[in-house]
Structure prediction request, 147 residues.
Amino acid sequence: MAFTASNFHSLVELVYKHPEWRAELRRLVLTEEILTLPQVVKELAEAQRELAAAQARTEQRVQDLVVVQQHTVKRIEELAEAQKSFTTELRQLSNLVGSTEEEEAGGVMQVVLEGRGYQAVSEGFNLRMNGEVDVVLPLRDAEGNRL
Prediction:
C-alpha cells in the first residue's frame, strides 16, 4: 500500500489530536542536536542576561570611581592650597622670629663692642637682603673713625 497525500493529512490530524505522539514523532524525525536547541537557546539567553547585569554593575562601579576620583582631586587641590597658605604663614613667622633674634643679637653685639672700646653712633637696625635679616650697628672706634 502506497502512502498518499490524504494519508499524510490524516497522519497530521492524528498527531495534532494526540500531543504525546508529537513528542515521539519529534524524537524520530529530529536529530539530538536540534532537540536540545531550545535548551541551548534558553541557556544562552540567561547567560546574556547575566552578562548584561554584570556590565551594568561594572558601569556603576566605574561611575562610583569617577565620583571618588573627583573628590580626591578636589581634596588634593584643597591640600595644595592649604600648603601654599601654610608655607606663606611659616615664612612670615620665620621672618618675624628672625627679626626678633636679630634685634636681640644687635643689642648683645652693642654691649660687647662697647665693652671693647667702640661707641654706638645710633640705634642698630635690621637690613633685609636675599631673604635674610642682618643687623647694622653704626659705630666709632677709639680713634673716632666711623664704622
User: Anything to note?
Assistant: The longest strand covers residues 125-129. The chain has a mean pLDDT of 86.
